[in-house]
Amino acid sequence: MWGLLLALAAFAPAVGVGLGAPGASMLGLAPPATTEARGSTPAPQSSPVQPPAGKDNGTSERHVRIRIVKKKKVIMKKRRKLTSPRPLVTAKPPVTTTPAGAPELPEAAEPGCPPLGLESLRLSDSQLEASSSQSFGLGPHRGRLNIQSGLEDGDLYDGAWCAEEQDAEPWFQVDARHPTRFSGIITQGRNSVWRYDWVTSYKVQFSNDSQTWWGSRNRSSGMDAVFPANSDPETPVLNLLPEPQVARFIRLLPQTWLQGGASCLRAEILACPVSDPNDLFPKAPALASSDPLDFRHHDYKAMRKLMKQVNEKCPNITRVYSIGKSHQGLKLYVMEMSDQPGEHELGEPEVRYVAGMHGNEALGRELLLLLMQFLCREYLRGDPRVTRLLTETRIHLLPSMNPDGYETAFRRGSELVGWAEGRWNHQGIDLNHNFADLNTPLWEAEDDGLVPDTVPNHHLPLPTYYTLPNATVAPETRAVIEWMQRIPFVLSANLHGGELVVSYPFDMTRTPWAARELTPTPDDAVFRWLSTVYAGTNRAMQDPDRRPCHSQDFSLHGNIINGADWHTVPGSMNDFSYLHTNCFEVTVELSCDKFPHENELPQEWENNKEALLTYLEQVRMGITGVVWDKDTELGIADAVIAVEGINHDVTTAWGGDYWRLLTPGDYKVTASAEGYHTATRNCRVPFEEGPVPCNFHLTKTPKQRLRELLAAGAKVPPDLRRRLERLRGQKN
User: Fold this and answer.
1) What is the CA angle 538-541-544, rounded to 5?
2) Of 658, 604, 586, which Cα lies nearest the Cα of 627?
3) Interatomic CA distance for residues 627 and 625, integer angstroms
4) Angle, nearest 10°, between helix axes 363-381 and 601-617?
């Protein structure tokens, strides 16, 4: 046995294997015991190692340590000196290493080559093959970078491609369908809450016909290159090829993997298209847009510069302002777009888009930067649709709610940021769980029969604990709450990434501790309408041939879902917005890829452009009006607008104007305000584009008139004084 191990160690490349896995401590599990598969020796953890002087024959003399894991005891046995090939040292992108350990950039390497499209689903399942699969749920179609597993181990949606255990020579193959210059590979292990599986080293082969294959070789030794892979399930590892290869097919051949585990991986291929002079292959579809916009990722400084440029180009319809600062002091910039920027116009609804709540979900940020460029450009060109939108609506675009998290993700890069890095703010707070839980006090009051007579069904106050100085509330969250309270928003969408679906409130399950449960709001019909409008005009969501991103096929339900029926999210911005303000807000999951490569931004813009515009126009759906004082003809602030049959009211803004989103139908609407008699009228919402005017004139009560007289210093007539005294006596 020892002889076999030593023989294998003499010829196997060094492979580093991690001793832990993210989430192990969180799940209460101990890290898995780890040994090198196939007798390979541990890789050095430091930077490239220089060979001893005089050793230039491709071998080096070194001690070999064989590590034996018995339960939790690790035994190191030192053997005699052997002569073996020098270990391949892990490449730190974008630099690869030669077998001698000296860093060098590969000739003609193109680290800037974009991803082929495994993660973004541009590659279909039919383009992925493998030597074997443990099950359908672990088939090659699941070998996509950052794909997430379902909660059930072994279901149809597992978190990687995994070869059968008896497969002695496993391989994972990608068919680019066109001549392609392959330049690099990114790998991850298996995403699972139950298992630890990852490949620790692999070889790469290429073919033009899937029959004849050649390998990627080290230039100095001429031997097949063995690439170091992963040491945990989630961290993406990039390896650039020593020399880019032009081919149609690429194969990854796992050489070693975590002992006790399986040969499992998720991958993305970096590749540049090449011209086909003979036109033997159909041309690859181009990712392009006809709009001349700035299609690239913008860090904080670039974002601020672009917003300034848009403001300078369209000064009459734009205003840039800040609503606060992040934990690290970066400003939360908002672009306001309206024909009268800087002021609330009576009767003009306020709409907002918020992106970047999770810093690593970068697509929403870029879409809002593209949207502001587009609106400015089209307004200057006189586009009637955009002109009407900016004339009748006041639009607010917050491209980065979590700039600290985005900067972290941006530094890692679109393909190496992984699934979670940059998600939280600098304090480690998930901003979408950080808003006050107003659901629980409302539902408790409803169970006690206190709503709406004692406890209102709208504009619930912040809980006392949430306002304490030591409350765990992120500065970004506080800034957005104050922004909500300052501006009478009517409609909003919160742009996320990592899925293709629109979710609507409630996001929190009504049954305590339920992981998921259908929990609709009283305005379920409106939220379903809004969600369907976005999903129905989003190109990617409407693609009948698209496959599910991860573990749920939302296309079966029109690409919309009740948030709580998906997974419970206490303290979400959607629920808070609905219960604390007048604003109706949904979450739009824009793409399977949280941080798409720059070359995919034009297509993502085309996928979402019509949806972004059409959703903004839904603010005209329903009724709108002004609640006036009948005597003074002044607007009444904070008047309550109640719709019969819907247990959720809205209030008027400081000028007395209001907007109530409703689906088509006939409604009985009541306006009330303190010190006034209530008024009720019938309002019909047609299917044609609205909104429908529904104004009210309220008359002061005698008691209110008396208060105003006394406040003005008027004397009370003697007969009225005696009458009031008698009334007080009867009351006592």
Assistant:
1) 125
2) 658
3) 7
4) 70
Q: Where are the beta strands (DSSP E) in 645-721?
A: 650-651, 657-660, 665-672, 679-685, 692-693, 696-698
Q: Which helix (H) or strand (E) holds 651?
A: strand 650-651
**For 614-633, what is the mean pLDDT?**
96
Report whether 224 contacts 160 (CB < 8 A).
no
Residue among 513, 538, 645, 660 nearest 589 (CA): 538
Tokens of 183: 């330049």
Cα separation of 557 and 528, whole Å? Answer: 11
DSSP character at residue 689: S
Buried b (16+ CB within 10 A) or exposed e, 616-652: bbbbbbbbbbbbbbeeeeebbeebbbbbeebebbbbb
For 458, the token pair is 């709208």
User: What distance in Å separates the CA atoms of residue 500 and residue 216, rounded to the nearest whole number?
Assistant: 36
* Residue 73: per-residue pLDDT: 33
* Cα distances (Å, whole numbers) of residue 719 to 481, 573, 710, 716: 51, 55, 16, 8
Burial class from Cβ neighbours inside 10 Å (0-12, 13-18, 19+) for residue 28 reads exposed
- Judge whether 270 and 115 are in contact, CB under 8 Å: yes
Round to whole Å and give the CA distance between 604 and 364. 10
Burial class of residue 439, CB neighbours in 10 A (0-12, 13-18, 19+): buried
DSSP E strands, 258-317? 264-273
Contacts of 707 (CB under 8 A, 6+ apart): 675
- Which tokens go with 281? 């292959």
Radius of gyration (C-alpha) of the chain in whole angstroms: 31
**How many helices and strands (H and E) does the chain possess?**
13, 30
CA distances from 29 to 25, 365, 471, 652 (A): 6, 36, 31, 53
CA torsion 468-470-471-477 (nearest 10°) is 100
Q: Which amino acid type is present at position 550?
A: H
Q: Which residue has the tokens 């690099």?
A: 184
DSSP letters, 380-444, are HHT-HHHHHHHHH-EEEEES-S-HHHHHHHHHH-TTTSTTTTT-S-TTS--GGG-S---HHHHHH
Q: Which residues are known to be catalytic? A: 589
pLDDT at site 719: 76
How many Å separate Cα 367 from the centre of its chain? 13
> Smallest Cα–Cα separation from 114: which of 413, 315, 364?
413
Mean pLDDT of the chain: 85
* pLDDT at residue 394 is higher than 50: yes
Q: What gap in Å lies between CA 631 and CA 697, rounded to an integer?
A: 9
Supply the pLDDT for residue 284.
61
pLDDT-based confidence at 640, cuts 50/70/90? very high
Instruction: Provide the β-strand partners of residue 203.
Output: 253
In whole angstroms, what is the distance from residue 390 CA to residue 392 CA? 6
Tell me the residue length of the chain: 732
d(CA 257, CA 31): 16
Residue 504: closest CA among 555, 556, 557, 563: 563
Backbone dihedral angles phi then psi of residue 496, each to the nearest 5 degrees: -125, -170
Take residue 604 and report the two structure tokens written for it: 């993502």
Q: Which two tokens stand for residue 579?
A: 């219960």
Report how far apart, in Å, the C-alpha atoms of 129 and of each of 143, 342, 567 are.
10, 57, 32
Q: Are 297 and 422 in contact, with CB atoms under 8 Å apart?
A: no
